[in-house]
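Morning F.,

Quick status update on the modeling queue. The single chain you submitted on Monday has been processed. Sequence for confirmation:
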Amino acid sequence: METLIIHPTKEQEKAIIAFLEAMHVTFEKRSDFLPNHVIAGIEKGLKDVTEGKTMSLNEFKQRRSSLR
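Structure tokens below.
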């Protein structure tokens, strides 16, 4: 089985869904798709925040400028 990711307009979406249904092709409609590495990064960031691993924008700017 293969996976196809498409980005149709609303008009195209209706035609594609009608075609898939006529061909008895199983499909799922998702508008929340994010790659696994993006989801992993978000989860890590949320974990860091709950563990108190944060810094202010000014702290970030100071650390960044000291690396130059």
